[in-house]
Amino acid sequence: MLAADLRRPERLAALRRAWAAGEALRVAPALDEGEALALLEATRREPHALVVPEAPPIRFQFWKWAGIPEAACEHALCRLGRWTQTDLLAWVEAVTGLALAPPPEGPPCAAALYTKGSYLDAHDDYGRGRAVAYVLGLTPAPWPEADGGWLEFLAAQDGPVVEARPPGWNTLDLFDVRAPGRWHRVTLLREHHQRRTIAGWFHPR
Amino acid sequence: MTDTSLHPRLRDPATLAALARDYRACGGNLRVADVLAPGLAAALPDLLLSLPFSAHHVQDDHVRCFFWRCVIGVPPEGLGALPPPLDLLGRFVTQDLPALASAITGRPVRGPVEDWLPVCLYRKGSYLDAHEDHGIDRAVAFVLGLTRGAWPAEVGGHLEFLAEDRETVVERRPPGFDTLDLYDVRPVVRWHRVPLLVEHVERLTVSGWLPSSPEATTC
Questions:
Q1: Which residue of B has its CA nearest to A62?
Q2: Which pLDDT band holds residue A54 (cuts at 50, 70, 90)?
Q3: Inter-chain touch A61–B124, beta carbons under 8 Å
């Protein structure tokens, strides 16, 4: 499932250096193109439920689908769920040098859909036993930053923005969340676009 | 229960006549201030915001929107069975508002066809794209503003009336408190919208439509 280029020794070495330097990585293509297309179609068919917080501190509004992958099911999302707990996990360990494990409970990952009005306010993913966050981008075409829906990394909870990434197609974002301060957000989507991702976390083994 | 939910000034025939003239002069679209009986507007927001709201998300050929809605059902026993001050809000929507709207618009209208009170809440991420309200049982639209606080138009959440191109803003009204927007749904095709709210503020209204009535009503 993983794109062949990501297994090349030179590529891995470069990613290891970037990770060690504290960078939030983005790689593309992340998957074989056919797998990415199959995942996009699978997420489009699944009903997503609106998620909003019961109460602060983190505020958000977007649509989410999450499921527990079945061992023998060949549905694209089941295969992806199993893959995140095996091959992807092993690859991320190779890049980060960390000993990792899937989340101890619940779905290994979740599909997210951002439509007009969706957003995810600034947060740093710290404090829940997580080590590495990953975001698989499944948005076929990007749009201008002014339209919103971009992933922004911030110097602090209230900004400024240190990096802004457009919704990606067949991209994989990886960033270290073992310590507080990796502030990031998805800006309010102001137009009728659809931002699709599948995201999750790895925990320390 | 008191005998009206309206501000006493709205029982003055001269005031009503002046509002009716203003309504006609504005082409059948008017904002009225100081609508509710003293104390009623202040008592409503906290109570309404404590109620459960559900997402109202529509994406079809007629309208695209996302906001939050709470429907307060009118008990079989009637409005008097609602706890105060909801009983007065119910009286406003079903009795006093139709009478007031008939007097101001010059069009006999009656209470909403729905047997519930429509409370609408816009938060960050809420919007109502351009539309023109066409539909059955919609003679006059109403928006009772119960929004505390104010913010600039670029934050969103203002009520915008648009030209035929559905983009040019011809009039913009900020969220109001103890205000009543009334406008004819027909014969003018009146495009309007509530732009996306981009900050964590809250726009609270009770809004809907009043159908035509064959009977004339008076306050």
A1: B125
A2: confident
A3: yes
H or E stretch including B24? helix B13-25
Distance CA B129, CA B166 (A): 10
Contact B125 A192 (CB under 8 A): no
- Alpha helix (H) ranges present in chain A? 9-20, 33-45, 76-83, 89-96
Per-residue pLDDT of B151-191, as tens digits, reads 999 999 999 999 999 999 999 999 999 999 999 998 889 99
Question: Do B66 and A119 make contact, defined as CB atoms within 8 angstroms?
Answer: no
Q: Does B153 fall in a domain? A: yes
User: What is the per-residue pLDDT across B112-140, written as a single tens digit (0 to 9) for each?
Assistant: 988 889 999 999 999 999 999 988 889 99
Please, which residues 94-113 of chain B have a Cβ atom closer than 8 Å to chain A? none
Look up the CATH number of domain A4-204: 2.60.120.620
Which domain, by its residues, includes B36? 8-210
User: How far apart are the C-alpha atoms of A184 and A150, rounded to whole Å?
Assistant: 10
Q: Would an 8 Å CB–CB cutoff place A188 in contact with chain B?
A: yes
